[in-house]
Amino acid sequence: MIRVKVNFAFQLFTACLKPYQQLQNKNVDVRFMTKDDINKVHALCYEAFYEQWIFAYENKSFELSRVITADSYKSNEEKMKNVLIATVDNEIIGMCELSFYKRKSKTFTIDFFKSITHFPLKSMIITLATIGMYNHIATKEPGEATVDFLAVNKYSRGLGVGKILLSKADELAMQKSCNKISLLVVFSNYGARRFYEKCGYSSTKAFIFKKWFLWGNEGAFKMEKNLLPNTVH
Ligand SMILES: CC(C)(COP(=O)(O)OP(=O)(O)OC[C@H]1O[C@@H](n2cnc3c(N)ncnc32)[C@H](O)[C@@H]1OP(=O)(O)O)[C@@H](O)C(=O)NCCC(=O)NCCS
Questions:
Q1: Of the residues 195, 199, 201, which should be mutated to test ligand 1's pocket, given the most ligand atoms within 8 Å of the CB?
Q2: Closest residue by Cα to residue 172 from 106, 109, 83
Q3: pLDDT tens, 126-184?
């Protein structure tokens, strides 16, 4: 009996170590997203942002969010050039979507409004009712880059993949003449906040959301980092 328990504990231990060992001996490659990645990228984001997405899309969440994601990439293929994909042995284990702003921007993209048309009625009404808040938090300065989505597969977290993606994001932003990179992270995402601090970001603003704001009833920090050549790791 004791032997069975020891065996089980050992198997559990080695199962937990497996992703770590796999990554330790292999290179993480970073490349740009292609059309063939759309479904895998969606599945990765869905798993990472499940709580936000289920709230917006209600019970149809997986298929609906897949359609919206696929639509937004297919209708604007340029967007995929701003999505970094981390792979190990050609398997996607992480993604990072970026935007770059040449001028001051508050405006919503056509994608944003197109997405809303797919929403269930209640989510659509909430989104339209809180459009002023979206506009407020969406303000970008000239020369600002933003991390719009960052997700690492749950089995590959804590192994440096997120840091690699953010470092590539810095490089890309600098190539596009940006002098600052920023993102929004909800108050309760303590792990991600700590992670961004480790990657050189600091909180510069706090947005308190209205209770009925679609993407959460708490608020978010804007975190940012200056992109001077000597600050890129
Ligand atoms: C946040 C996330 C992208 C981090 O990616 P990751 O690959 O696990 O992070 P890394 O392994 O590169 O970690 C880099 C550093 O941050 C630290 N870190 C990472 N996650 C952390 C956590 N949850 N709590 C505290 N520190 C953390 C690591 O210890 C490491 O520190 P070190 O440089 O001193 O060794 C990943 O956890 C994730 O996908 N989370 C779900 C989606 C999400 O919340 N995205 C952010 C939305 S704003």
A1: 195
A2: 83
A3: 888 888 888 888 889 999 999 999 999 999 999 999 999 999 999 999 999 999 999 99
Query: Which residues form ligand 1's pocket by a CB distance below 6 Å?
Result: 48, 150-152, 157-163, 183, 185, 189, 191-192, 194-195, 198
Q: In order of start, what are the domains of the chain with their CATH numbers?
A: 28-231 (3.40.630.30)
Task: Give distance in angstroms: CA of 49 to centre of ligand 1.
Answer: 14
pTM above 0.85, yes or no: yes
Name the residue with the closest Cα to ligand 1, atom 8. Answer: 157
Task: For residues 137 and 57, give the distance between their C-alpha atoms in angstroms, rounded to a whole number.
Answer: 21
d(CA 31, CA 45): 17
